[in-house]
């Protein structure tokens, strides 16, 4: 139990579907992140939120849309995805609001996404 | 470009010692991290090195040489539960985390 909860743990969707991934952290942290993890590849940072404000968007396609309604919740809305988007999507949080400047991130267990 | 290299997979025997290497080429350096990730679980923080030398924490130790752009994670008295992927990450000059692809460690009885 890391204090970061992600739902659903597994998701299968067609290319025309719309779905959302949810992340909730119970640690009182101010920064939250979405990462993509593909087999045998480094973690790819997708989005960063500090104090509910998006501070980074690493050239992520618009079919991925993040939402951060408060500092404890983070969503990733998915629309018209491609099969190559199949991956593990990890949410993380950190104590400070300056991005990744501590380097110590607290991860959720991830949402395994399969796009058919 | 920025790059982190670590072996894709390693195998070791229960009770033995294993060393997982990580080399990096980054724009600046503000620390190196090791994370452990069991299959189907969240990555969890193991260690942080910002100065040269060895940091010991129980059965796990992490070493850093900034001049060589090199680190290793040393696991002693291996247990079956140490089977996991080990991720190396460097905090660059912009305080961005640059990740390696991870090393899958398989422990055999």
Question: What does this entry look like structurally?
Answer:
The complex is a heterodimer of chains A (116) and B (109). Chain A is built from no helices and eleven strands. Chain A has 116 residues and is mostly beta strands. Chain B is globular and about 40 Å long. Chain B is mainly beta. Chains A and B meet through strand 10 of A and strand 5, strand 9 and strand 10 of B.
Task: Describe the protein's topology.
The complex is a heterodimer of chains A (116) and B (109).
Chain A: E1 4-7, E2 10-13, E3 18-25, E4 31-37, E5 44-50, E6 53-57, E7 64-70, E8 73-79, E9 87-94, E10 106-107, E11 111-115
Parallel strand pairs in A: 2-11
Antiparallel strand pairs in A: 1-3, 3-8, 4-5, 4-9, 5-6, 7-8, 9-10, 9-11
Chain B: E1 3-5, E2 9-13, E3 18-25, E4 32-37, E5 44-49, E6 53-57, E7 60-65, E8 70-75, E9 84-91, E10 97-99, E11 103-108
Parallel strand pairs in B: 2-11
Antiparallel strand pairs in B: 1-3, 3-8, 4-5, 4-9, 6-7, 7-8, 9-10, 9-11
Offer a concise description of the structure:
The complex is a heterodimer of chains A (116) and B (109). Chain A is mainly β and 116 residues long.
- End-to-end C-alpha gap of chain A: 31 Å
Rg measurement of chain B, Å: 13 Å
Order of helices and strands of chain B: EEEEEEEEEEE
Quick one: overall form of chain B?
Answer: globular
Low-confidence runs of chain B (pLDDT<50, min 5 residues)? none
Question: Keywords, please?
Answer:
heterodimer, A: 116 residues, mainly beta, seven-stranded mixed beta sheet, four-stranded antiparallel beta sheet, 11 strands, 55% strand, B: 109 residues, five-stranded antiparallel beta sheet
